[in-house]
Amino acid sequence: MDDDASDRDDGHDAAIEWWLQEKAGEIDGERRIAFEAWLAADPAHAQAYTDITEMFSKAQGLRRARYRQVHGVRRTWRAAAGVALAASLAFFGWLAEFANRHPADYSTGVGERRTVTLTDGSRVELDSHSAIAVRFEAGLRRVTLLSGEAWFEVAPIASRPFVVEAAGGTVTALGTAFDVALQKNGARVAVSEHAVAVASGGERLIVETRQETSYEADTPARAPVSVAAENVAAWRRGALVVEDRSLGEALTILGRYRYGYVFCLRASTCARRVSGVFSTAEPLTTLREIEFFLGLRAIHLTNYLIFLTE
């Protein structure tokens, strides 16, 4: 993901948080000053807030009209607001997903896993809500991870290197099996057999069996660290392994296994650290377990729009 895209995502998330606080009547005094400073800091902030406000207004109007037609009664503001915002976010999420998956050769939907055998004999397993584009040439086998996570078992062809592009970096197979996962601002690479060469930010390093590394776009990869063999691509066995990651990262991963959105009402909440082994088959149960362990409270505006608070 490039810096502009990352900034847009951060601005969008912040706009949603400010919008919710405004509707809850929590913006006054110092919070009002902070809100106005945020709006003035970047034209994109004001635009993001305007977009969220307009999306809600339009979607709420459509929802109310439809509800009166079917039921002849009004729903509570909270439920209507939740449905409207969820519908708006789903629509824009669908647009973003369509733009990302349009060039994909292989993809999976929510809750789906898929195994693909490429023309060179290499095998690729796609996790839930993932997509890749394949571009094989005479002297190079190139695969781009467009979304989600994938495990690669590479057929050895010395004259044609096998390279996975992800988040601005590359992972070159050195006769190997390995896993690549996109993260919010970069990618994570874990090796189950042999080794790979990871290049990012103008530097290159080797990651060997039972090691993993990660990097942000245009930034050198971190020094490899050991990882338990059973934790490499644990999703292939239906397990979601989270080791000392931020709640925000965990929610992003969990989001691949369910429809809907989960947001933190405070940035500090999403910064909390999480560790555990969960089931990918029961994402809502996983979310409840995380809430319990971190002492959080979930606000369900709808089943598809959940906010976490402390």
TrEMBL record:
<keyword id="KW-0614">Plasmid</keyword>
<dbReference type="Pfam" id="PF16220">
    <property type="entry name" value="DUF4880"/>
</dbReference>
<feature type="domain" description="FecR N-terminal">
    <location>
        <begin position="13"/>
        <end position="52"/>
    </location>
</feature>
<keyword id="KW-1133">Transmembrane helix</keyword>
<feature type="domain" description="FecR protein">
    <location>
        <begin position="105"/>
        <end position="196"/>
    </location>
</feature>
<dbReference type="InterPro" id="IPR006860">
    <property type="entry name" value="FecR"/>
</dbReference>
<keyword id="KW-0472">Membrane</keyword>
<dbReference type="InterPro" id="IPR032623">
    <property type="entry name" value="FecR_N"/>
</dbReference>
<dbReference type="InterPro" id="IPR012373">
    <property type="entry name" value="Ferrdict_sens_TM"/>
</dbReference>
<dbReference type="Pfam" id="PF04773">
    <property type="entry name" value="FecR"/>
</dbReference>
<protein>
    <submittedName>
        <fullName>Sensor</fullName>
    </submittedName>
</protein>
<keyword id="KW-0812">Transmembrane</keyword>
<feature type="transmembrane region" description="Helical">
    <location>
        <begin position="76"/>
        <end position="96"/>
    </location>
</feature>
